[in-house]
Amino acid sequence: MRYIRIKQIFIATMILVGASLLASCEPTAGEPIWKKHSSIYYGGPYFEQPTAYQQGIIDQLKSQGVDFIQVGETINLVFSSDQLFLANSANIQDTAKPLLKLTARLIRSYDTTDISVRAYSDTPGTMPPKTLLTVRQAEVVAKRLWEAGVDTRLMSSQGKGVGHPIASNLSDAGQASNRRVEIVFRYHPAIQPYD
Prior knowledge:
By secondary structure, this protein is of the alpha/beta class. The protein has a single domain (31-187), classed as CATH 3.30.1330.60. 41% of the residues lie in helices and 18% in strands. It has six helices and six strands, in the order αβαββααβαβαβ. The protein has helices at residues 2-24, 52-63, 81-84, 96-108, 127-147, 172-178, and strands at 41-42, 67-71, 74-80, 112-120, 155-159, 180-187. The N and C termini lie far apart (48 Å).
């Protein structure tokens, strides 16, 4: 009985701590919560900073509107679908091709273990076509990465449809934030010998 009570107190405390952290991270109106911290590195126990070469690519991607989020050995690159594709299609824009080549250079510079390409949409419209559109968008981005030299044995693509919104769909800015493609990959950190 005592163990159950301690567990309940622990869970309640964690909920309060999580709520207070979320409250301190309030984004501006129409801005998703991750945007406030999109250029911060969240290091784990084996965290390493990017090399100068990798940092140069990351800076180029950021200057073109790509959000870079790193948590330990996992890197998440968030692209606006409007930046990559023509409106309501899986046809890639000509301006997005060099951006995806640059992304492939970044991925190849790491000793990657797996790569996931995920496409998301906003809620206006009917759900089955939105899901099919995001499936096709994820496949197109994965194909472009493969053409730029990324190992397809490590890659998967998923169309998430309207699930997992990161902003409210009640405003145009929120809908634009929800139309996104995320390229998530994990890497092996460099081996550090013991002294």
